[in-house]
Amino acid sequence: MASDTMGSPGPVEIAMREKLVTLLQPSKLIIINESQLHRHHAAMRSQGGGNGETHFAVQVISDAFKGKNTVQRHRLIYSALSEEFSQGLHALSLNTKTSEEAQRYQAENCQGRE
Amino acid sequence: MFQSALRTPLRSTGALFPLSRCLKSQTFRRFLSQESRTKIQAAVTEYPVVLFMKGSPEQPMCGFSRGVVKILSAFDIPPEKFKIYNVLEDVELRTGIKEFSEWPTIPQLYVNGEFVGGSDIALSMFQLGELEALLEQHGVIPKASESPS
Q1: CA-CA to A57 of 20 to 30 Å: which in A16, A33, B64, B114?
Q2: CA-CA distance, A20 to A87, in Å (whole number)?
Q3: CA distances, B108 to each of A35, A101, B87 (Å)
Q4: Would you call A74 an interface residue with chain B, using a CB distance cutoff of 8 Å?
């Protein structure tokens, strides 16, 4: 489980990871802090650049997603993080797959390189 | 636990739920008045395609909103079938639409009164050809097979 931050994960990222692991029991969970990319945007500037934990990209592979369409998967994650959203989390880019979908994606996208 | 509560409208049986479950299921429903809900419901069904974004197509105020506008502009949707709301101009709308859609972020895309998704979903559907298919299915754009090649 990798975390691509410029330092150690902040409290929001730690809370997110804990909640998502509990909720989804993922085989893979990557959380990337992209807040630095957005700190100059108008909305962030008005917050003094934000707290450095405003925008994240999350990739999850979990079979808790089986039978759920994309909107349902995203809602599942959003509802688990509602507290974070009300406290400064601004945007979450989500990539959600079941283990089967991840394997299929891998197979389809690596073929051309053989 | 509260997944089904999020997907179905909260019936007026709040008094029957234990307080702790009430608090959780009310996360998205704390502020939306019936009047606001009715207004938003009317807004998402008034046009076949409705987009709630930050800023305008000419001046998007957020990269995610800009992305969805760009994607949609690829389809040449007739203006009479497409309505765009700038949530930055209306605080009540900005918070109301999040509760209404049970979705905490903007942009939000609706097609024929049904919530389609935000920026990730719109982009993914666009890349897979699903967005075009959806717009064709709802008569927003002509089917590609109908135009001469």
Answers
A1: B114
A2: 17
A3: 21, 25, 10
A4: yes
Instruction: Say whether B46 sits in a helix, a strand or coil.
Output: helix
Give the mean pLDDT of chain B.
Answer: 83
- In this complex, the residue of A43, A75, A93 whose CB is nearest that of residue B120 is A93
- Terminal CA-CA length for chain B: 51
Determine the distance in angstroms separating the CA of B147 from the nearest CA of chain A, rounded to an integer: 31
Q: Is B40 exposed, middle or buried (0-12, 13-18, 19+ CB in 10 A)?
A: buried
Task: Read off the pLDDT of each residue in B45-63 and give the average, rounded to a whole number.
Answer: 96
Asked if ipTM goes beyond 0.85, one says no
Q: What is the pLDDT of residue B19?
A: 43
Give the integer Cα–Cα distance in Å for A1 and B56.
38
Longest dimension (CA), chain B: 62
Find the residue in A nearest to B118 (Cα). A71
3-state secondary structure of B114: strand
pTM over 0.95: no
Do B120 and A94 count as a contact with CB atoms less than 8 A apart?
yes
